Amino acid sequence: MAEVFARLSSRAIALGLGTLLLVAACSTGGTTGNQGASSTDVTVWTAWGGDELKAFRDVLKPFTDKTGIKVHITTNRDSTNQIANGIAAGTDLPDVAPGPTDPAQVKSWVSKGALKPIETALGSDQFKSYIDNTYPALTTPPSGQSDNPYIGVIGGKHYFLMVKTQVKGLFWYNKKVFTGTAPKTFDELLALNPSQYGGAKNIFCAGFESGAASGWPASDQIDNIIMRQSGDQIYTNWIQGKVKFTDPAIKLGYQTFLKEVSGSNVFGGSNTALSTNFAKAGDPLFNTPPGCLFLEQATFIANFFHQNKGVTAGTDFDFFAHPSMGKTEFDGNVNGFYDQFSMYNDTPAARQLLQYLATKDAQQIWANDGGTLGAIKTLTYNDPIYKRAAEIANGAKNLLVTAGDFMPSDMQKAFWQSLLNVTRDPGSLDSQLKHLDQVQTAAYTTS
Questions:
Q1: In contact, 72 and 27? CB cutoff 8 Å
Q2: 151, 263, 280, 370: which has the highest count of C-beta atoms within 10 A?
Q3: In the chain, what are the domain boundaries?
Q4: At the top level of CATH, which class does the domain 9-135+345-378 belong to?
């Protein structure tokens, strides 16, 4: 099965974007409404700020220089709700903005004509090139199916233009400490003796604190286990509320997760894992003596290693892909997320912008600025970390999103909290799972 999903907002959570709405006029003009059928102006909403916004400006500069089109950017971290309100009220929408991540919302907005097909924006020739050159996991529904709302495909048409992606479930290490061979299976990983490598105290580091979103790093870890342990179909059905938390497959995932965060395996014990912010979780990798051998996290964590410890990718640290959970048929399930844009107003300027963002030239600028993968398969990466991550993305059978990101909000909150609770008290697992079943019944009934 080639069912694939990913999500842009998980990185927004991961990078600690606390404020829900931040407006930044980032070009010549700061209007937020649409420009009619304009060929000279285009309004764009995005969740990006800081370095990500700077990189987007870098991407846009050749476009604006060549076309003279003015791109009016609004950094809006509540865009989905605001667009939903605009659709309901019949008020102006941005020309270009991220599409919704809720599958039901994708279908609804398509049915209401709010989302315009990417086929229309790109035209037949460029659309074919876009499909041919973009990671298949981001554009192609399961064989024989015309719908995959998780990647914005409805009725065989595409409503998300994929521009960036990231890979999760990677095990990071200090190259001066771990000099062994990457374990092929999770059991081999657990069997390592950390003291043999620079006197490391534990196999793993972990940090699950992230303010109101605490627990999401733990959900990344258990998701990577379940999708490889029990397969993409069970994983998908679990996200959709069709598999209970007390199901043996999900319980096994929790039990395996608890091996990672056991007192004997995680640096500082469970209290340290619970109280350490995700951005600093990998710092002990570079201590003397090292506190641990590995940290499990996504590609973006390399930025924090450099920021916190002044270390260099490829020279001081590296990663290996998530090892097999013993079911080789599920080894191709890769955890990841993406950034995408949709067209809400079919204007000449909006079409030209999306046509540009779909090109290798545009996405190569993102790759050159660092900190992300593009969506195009043939980009080149100077950073050895992203060069290897691109190989993992290209070889993925399925690129599957972090489960909690697609669960109803009450379910997400309870799921993340349960991971904190069982880390603190492993003996509470059965009661936690029963409680999650109750939350699931209510959350999916009302969502």
A1: yes
A2: 151
A3: 9-135+345-378, 170-331+403-446
A4: alpha beta
